[in-house]
Specification:
Elements: E1 11-14, E2 22-27, H1 36-47, E3 54-59, H2 71-78, H3 86-122, E4 127-133, H4 135-146, H5 148-152, E5 156-162, H6 170-179, E6 184-188, H7 193-198, E7 219-223, H8 236-243, E8 254-256, H9 265-269, H10 271-279, H11 282-292, H12 307-318, H13 321-327, H14 333-343, H15 354-373, H16 378-391, H17 397-402, H18 404-422, H19 426-430, H20 434-438, H21 442-463, E9 471-473
Helix pairs in contact: 3-4, 10-12, 10-21, 11-12, 11-18, 11-21, 14-15, 14-21, 15-16, 15-21, 16-18, 18-21
């Protein structure tokens, strides 16, 4: 960072040592950079991107969700639940978000000044692109609409909006196009429940809806409806590779779900679960079938390898069996992750995207198994120590690729161990309720999450992190 900056002001920082003739400036959203860990997370996500551009993060005073008490209420809303007495709390605390939003127009002059000052130190460049997320989209739009001539001097080429927390009318869109030399890319998701919660269609945010701008190939609306509002940074690498500004990636688009009928339509639309299984090897699919078959209610064979069937079965295992019968299918993978995180006492799972939450669950279970083995027999410790070291991501993902066969065989033993030891305990037995008998089957969903994380990492290495964005569905 160039100088000690205050969290109450706008400042920019390089994300890596890489320098190129193109500048990419990334702008975070609400409450995304509250501390050094948050800022390092964002910088690491950007620094891992392909290409040799100069990547820069613009930090700004974006509020602090950690001071708010309505996190659990928000996630309850996302899942369709009810929190008694939460409405008053939510109504009071949403003001923090809205106050940050209202303060954005005051920041536009500072934003322009700080950008000019920073890039003057960079030296010559060909053009720059802006990437914004959430309220970061609102910030850059407000600044460019207020000061179009000044931004035109910056040689802005492309604008990439991700989960934008603002509407954009035709006249405003035209002003942006007049200011830039390239295109506007609007990445949106009708599955963005955070925007739905904060702005329930009072403002048709471009993070949930396409930009309505007729007869122009310079406005590109890209609907990735499997993304939630908190998933964009975790999937930034895949998004950038999909956009492929450098024209170096081949886009092999995979049709998913063609000809599929209910109840499997719900399965193939759960892209974050279905696509890793679509790309999984036969051995990986058989291991998942083995894990799911540990539950007596499983309706699949141990040799099942159909990705759609496995997705559907895991969704059923993650849901309440009574509710499953009523709706005709189980629950989405995002809800399976959240329930598992709550079972494992992982703090604030509602503030993690699905990739980060899946990884957190994986590491938590590995840690629990290690701790339980401390008091185990020597024979049992020897049995699992080598397996644990292989599946501990601290050793490195490449090890899983090189030793795929051994690791996958080892995973069967670990999943059996989890089913016997981790999800059965006094706390579970003391909290018996109707849900205890009909609710999620943690003895299979938690091991399945671990395997899915393993598969996702392997597939990302083999096909690239953009594999989640190279598909289309007829639904």
């Amino acid at each position: 960072m160039m100088g000690a900056e205050s969290d109450n002001e706008v400042y920019l920082d390089f994300c890596s040592e890489s320098r190129g003739e193109i500048l990419n400036i990334y702008i975070h959203g609400y409450s995304a950079a509250n501390n050094d860990d948050d800022k390092l997370f964002l910088k690491n996500k950007v620094s891992s991107l392909p290409g040799n551009a100069t990547d820069i993060l613009l930090f700004w005073p974006s509020g602090n969700i950690w001071s708010m008490d309505f996190k659990k209420a928000v996630f309850s809303f996302l899942r369709g639940g009810v929190v008694p007495g939460a409405l008053m709390t939510v109504g009071e605390k949403v003001d923090d978000y809205l106050s940050v939003e209202r303060d954005i127009p005051r920041l536009v002059y500072e934003v322009l000044y700080k950008i000019n000052k920073f890039i003057s130190l960079v030296g010559e460049y060909k053009y720059l692109n802006f990437f914004g997320h959430s309220l970061g989209v609102r910030l850059i739009i407000e600044a460019m609409l207020k000061l179009p001539d000044d931004f035109k001097l910056l040689r802005v080429k492309n604008l990439v909006f991700m989960g934008g927390a603002r509407k954009l009318d035709i006249e405003e869109c035209q002003m942006l196009l007049n200011t830039i030399s390239g295109d506007v890319f609007n990445i949106y998701s009708d599955g963005d429940r955070i925007l739905q919660f904060i702005k329930p269609d009072l403002e048709k945010c471009i993070g949930r809806y396409p930009i309505q701008y007729p007869n122009s190939d310079r406005v590109k609306n890209i609907g990735f409806h499997h993304l939630g509002h908190l998933d964009y940074w975790d999937n930034l690498n895949g998004i950038v590779r999909y956009l492929d500004f450098d024209c170096v990636n081949s886009k092999k688009i995979i049709p998913v779900g063609n000809g599929v009928k209910e109840p499997h339509c719900f399965a193939v639309n759960d892209i974050v679960l279905y696509l890793p299984l679509y790309h999984a090897s036969l051995e990986e699919k058989k291991i998942l079938a083995h894990v799911l078959r540990q539950k007596s209610s499983a309706s699949i064979s141990q040799e099942e390898t159909c990705a759609i069937t496995l997705t559907h079965e895991l969704q059923l295992m993650g849901g309440d069996s009574i509710a499953n019968m009523a709706r005709g299918h189980g629950v989405c993978y995002r809800e399976i992750l959240y329930d598992a995180a709550m079972k494992l006492d992982i703090s604030n799972p509602e503030l993690l995207g699905f990739v980060s939450l899946e990884e957190t669950i994986f590491n938590k279970v590995i840690s629990l198994i290690k701790n339980s083995l401390d008091s185990s027999s020597k024979e049992e410790r020897n049995k699992y120590s080598d397996i644990l070291s292989e599946l501990d991501l601290g050793v490195g993902i490449d090890g899983m690729t090189i030793n795929t066969g051994l690791s996958l065989k080892s995973f069967i033993l670990i999943s059996d161990f989890i089913a016997r030891n981790v999800t059965i305990g006094s706390a579970s037995l003391l909290n018996l309720s109707m849900n205890a008998f009909s609710g999620p089957a943690f003895s299979v969903t938690i091991p399945s999450i671990m395997l899915l994380h393993y598969i996702r990492k392997r597939v990302a290495l083999e096909f690239g992190e953009e594999f989640l964005f190279q598909c289309y569905s007829e639904f």
